[in-house]
Write a structure and sequence with these properties.
By secondary structure, this protein is of the alpha/beta class. It is built from 16 helices and 8 strands. It has an 8-stranded parallel beta sheet.
């Protein structure tokens, strides 16, 4: 189809994708063998079966096991280079990737500055060799202590402009109220570091409201369950707060039954600001390009709307205004 070819070629921007979650199965096995880490499966077929998530908690278990295979700064650089090469293949000109630095520090003892230096080496390589850019969102896991969350925020603020573009919140929504980390996010806001929070995925509107009111979120990761609260929908629409929608992730983690029942079209028809994302692409058997294709094929989203979504992603990137304007111009010029 001509539309699918245009989707593959159009410049794209991705705002919700995890560096650890972008590790391909082949690379995961390589890292596990190199670092002497035992996985529940020792071949690709077994690994893919293990990836058949039974619950969100099972997904977190897999994600932590994956993180344990990353043992050195060189490993961090490797996965970042491979991620950026994959983005370039899809003509994703700019990405904001999340890295859970505190987990890698705790599991492998990789100093935060060493992690960032490894990412920045890969970013520089991708900029010059591939022509793609990336900013880093440093996330706080909900289950971390408020003290650790504050330390993460302080480090992220210190490195704002040194590859770091934002502070995030992730983890299991049901376990901890976002307000526990209010001080960390207040620090970020006061320092001018933008905020994106996972919310409204496995929990309902209360989770989104807390991220907005208690943490001052500029963007909401997922947010699909906002539709359960008309007042929240109106607020998100009126304030033009973007949703980082990840349909295949929602299907795999059983937030929705399948692509056809995903509320993507409802969110769009409600006038909300939509960005389309892949979340943890190899783990969910997808790519950003495939998310765009499925939106067109399974939900009937017109090509022009998909182009608008990519432009909306560019316009809501956590970049200085001049860089954001240049990115939007580039996306419009080549769409």
């Amino acid at each position: 189809m001509e539309a699918l070819e245009k989707i593959r070629k159009m410049p794209k921007v991705e705002l919700h994708v995890h560096l650890e979650g972008s590790v391909r199965p082949e690379t995961l096995l390589q890292l596990a063998q190199r670092n002497g880490v035992t996985l529940p499966a020792t071949d690709l077929e077994g690994l893919r079966k293990w990836y058949q998530f039974s619950s969100f908690e099972h997904f977190v278990e897999i994600y932590v096991a994956l993180s344990k295979c990353i043992r050195t700064a060189e490993d961090v650089e490797l996965i970042t280079r491979q991620f950026l090469a994959g983005q370039a293949e899809q003509n994703i000109v700019y990405s904001e990737a999340t890295l859970t630095v505190w987990t890698l520090k705790r599991l492998a003892g990789i100093a935060l500055d060493d992690q960032l230096a490894a990412v920045n080496r890969a970013r520089e390589w991708a900029r010059h060799d591939l022509g793609v850019e990336m900013g880093l969102i440093i996330d706080i896991i909900r289950e971390e202590s408020p003290e650790d969350g504050l330390a993460i925020a302080e480090w992220a603020v210190k490195n704002h402009g040194n590859g770091v573009v934002g502070l995030g919140l992730s983890g299991i929504e049901a376990k901890t109220n976002p307000a526990v980390h209010a001080k960390a996010f207040q620090l970020a806001r006061e320092a001018g570091l933008p905020i994106s929070c996972h919310a409204g995925e496995t929990q309902g509107p209360w989770s989104i409201w807390s991220c907005l009111n208690d943490l001052g979120a500029d963007r909401i990761g997922h947010g699909v369950r906002c539709l359960e609260d008309p007042d929240l929908v109106a607020h998100l629409r009126d304030q033009q707060i973007p949703l980082e929608v990840c349909p295949s992730s929602n299907v795999c983690l059983k937030v929705v039954n399948d692509w056809h029942s995903h509320p993507l079209r409802q969110l769009h028809e409600a006038g909300l600001t939509i960005t389309l994302n892949s979340d943890d692409p190899p783990m969910f058997g997808t790519t950003l390009t495939q998310e765009f294709e499925r939106a067109h094929l399974d939900q009937g989203i017109p090509l022009e709307t998909l182009k608008d979504w990519s432009l909306q992603a560019a316009g809501n990137a956590f970049l200085p205004e001049a860089e954001k304007a240049d990115l939007m111009t580039s996306v419009m010029a080549h769409s």
